[in-house]
Amino acid sequence: MLIVKKFGGSSVANKERVFNVARRIVEDYKEGHQVVVVLSAQGDTTDLLLEKAREINKNPSRREMDMFLSTGEQQSVALMAMALQSIGYPAISLNAYQVGMHTSSVYSNARLKRIDQERIMSELERNNIILVTGFQGINRYEDITTLGRGGSDTTAVALAAALKADRCEIYTDVEGVYTADPRVVPNARKLDEITYDEMLELASLGAKVLHNRSVELAKKYGVELVVRSSLSQAEGTIVKEECKMEKMLVSGVAADKNVARIAVIGIKDEPGKAFELFSLLAKKNINVDIILQSIGRGRSKDISFTTSRDNLEEALSIIHENLERISGERVEYDEQVAKVSVVGAGMASNSGVASLMFEALFDANINIKMISTSEIKISVLINEKDTEEAMNAIHESFKLFK
Ligand code: ADP
Ligand code: ASP
Ligand code: MG
């Protein structure tokens, strides 16, 4: 069997953890399997590198940032190869350039396009355990790119798809995918299985246990994933196309704090203004999420929307520069907000979910600022300080625990 195993940063955070992972890798190798391992940077290395870069330059070039951030993963794979060699196993570390992990050219948020197989296959034939850097790629200029925060999951799934691996296991610091972040909602329950679609929504809405693009790729190439703990033998959660078990109304609650709300007040109530506003933002690749337009008062209306906090400054400066063109009077914004969502395939055919969610928030005296819904999710925008309380209240009301 060919097995791809991915270990996140906390699983390799220190010497003991590195050897713990080394032993888990060896278990499969000793049974005669071919093992390709993807590693993240140790502990909070990536955060520390980010801080360090910002001490030098508050607005660093994205190319140099990727060059810098990718070093964390390179340390992990080399250290793991040393650990494996020290306990008597043949291992080799490879970075994105050595493997040939080709991505789009967008620094800091690149997409994997193609993975070369030659080097990996030849190292497997030499019976090596292979350690591949997560998170990084190379673009057509032969520059290092990164796949976005949490992107090592995507490296692992893409490798599993390219190599047609028999198993793809994602090891992390919790025992699987839960009905909510178990660190925030103590009553959260581990799911035995979850569909790609539900997992994709949860990941996109802030459940960082899997990178959302890893789930997208897993669905596209039919890679069944197992999410489990590197620190216990518990079975974990299977992520796949269809689930046997009865569809639950709601499969999870997620929160995202990387959100900001912008409101453009006093826009002329005539055709084409929303188009003006959002096409200006789209041209600068600024993604907009929830949009709300007020009913016109007299001859004007307000349009408010959310975007990620990282984009706030850029979005505000674009709007200020073009305020006349959009015909707005003024701009307001709020950074202290968060988006809390419920996700569930069973929701499509049940109309009671929204009111249950709103009732839970009302009971907790939490004000809703915006609402958005789709077939299998409902999201609300609330004050950031209420996030944890909202998650617990909503989780409780859906009886997501046993
Ligand atoms: P890794 O370093 O292994 O990639 P991450 O920190 O990226 O780990 O993701 C694991 C974390 O995701 C957990 O520690 C947990 O706090 C958080 N998390 C958020 N939502 C969920 C969820 N629904 N189920 C499990 N974990 C979740
Ligand atoms: N080290 C990277 C990050 O912290 C990638 C990852 O952990 O998946 O975002
Ligand atoms: Mg992660």
Describe the structure.
Helix 7 runs parallel beside helix 9 (212-221). The strands form 5 sheets. The chain has an 8-stranded mixed β-sheet with strand order 3-6-2-1-9-11-12-10, with helices on both faces. It has a 4-stranded antiparallel β-sheet with strand order 13-18-20-19, with helices on both faces. The protein is built from 14 helices and 20 strands. The protein has a domain at 2-173: Carbamate kinase, CATH 3.40.1160. With 402 residues, it is α/β, with parallel strands linked by helices. It has helices spanning 15-30, 45-56, 62-69, 71-86, 96-99, 118-125, 152-162, 196-204, 212-221, 273-283, 312-321, 323-326, 353-363, 387-397, and strands at 2-7, 34-39, 91-94, 101-103, 112-115, 129-133, 136-138, 144-146, 167-172, 193-195, 225-229, 237-240, 252-256, 260-268, 291-293, 300-307, 330-334, 337-343, 370-374, 377-383. The longest helix has 16 residues, at 15-30. It binds adenosine-5'-diphosphate, aspartic acid and magnesium ion. Magnesium ion (MG) binds at residues 8, 150, 153, 208.
